[in-house]
Design brief:
It is built from five helices and four strands; from the N terminus they run H-H-H-H-H-E-E-E-E. A hairpin with a 2-residue loop joins strand 2 and strand 3. With about 160 residues, it is α+β, with helices and mostly antiparallel strands. The protein has one domain: Nuclear Transport Factor 2, Chain: A (Roll). Pfam families: SEC-C (PF02810), YchJ_M-like (PF17775). InterPro entries: NTF2-like_dom_sf (IPR032710), SEC_C_motif (IPR004027), YchJ-like_M (IPR048469). This is YchJ-like middle NTF2-like domain-containing protein.
């Protein structure tokens, strides 16, 4: 029987986020720190969540609201969409991710573009910007060779698509 890490890495917790959360080793990348922070939310480890913040992020940190969110949420999974820099040789990085969770049986998704920076040998979370998912097209897409909807009688590619 395995003890899969909550971060979705498909590694065992003992080989993934546990050494980071327990302070046995620093996160090697911004993504590793982000994954360990998600795992800390799942495990409700408020100390690690606070320790992994950059000094400027501590200014607006509210222990009670972070604790309330972590405790109320039923954490359902993490998906990393993209990373920019944040590697072992970088000083900063960005990780875009979605954390799925439920509160009062309502499924929710927190999608964020998180900013991280290295301070010494430790990656720290700086700030995040909420991101909406890809746009959902509700109207039918007009094909290039279809008649133009403006009524000109020309093909769309020769008319309004120019």
């Amino acid at each position: 029987m395995t003890n899969a890490c909550p971060c979705g890495s498909e590694k065992e917790y003992a080989d993934c986020c546990s050494p980071l959360i327990k302070g046995e080793k620093p996160a090697p990348t911004a993504e590793a720190l982000m994954r360990s922070r998600y795992t800390a939310y799942v495990l409700k480890d408020m100390d690690y969540l606070k320790e992994s913040l950059a000094p400027e992020a501590l200014e607006g940190h509210d222990d009670s609201s972070v604790k309330e969110w972590a405790e109320r949420a039923n954490w359902l999974g993490l998906e990393v969409h993209e990373t920019w820099a944040g590697g072992e040789g970088d000083e900063s990085g960005i990780v875009e991710f979605s954390a799925q969770y439920a509160i009062d049986d309502e499924a929710l998704i927190h999608r964020e573009r998180g900013e991280f920076k290295r301070i010494g040998e430790h990656w720290r979370y700086v700030d995040g910007t909420m991101v909406s998912g890809p746009p959902v097209r509700k109207e039918r897409k007009i094909g290039r060779n279809e008649p133009c909807p403006c009524g000109s009688g020309k093909k769309y590619k020769k008319c309004c698509a120019k």
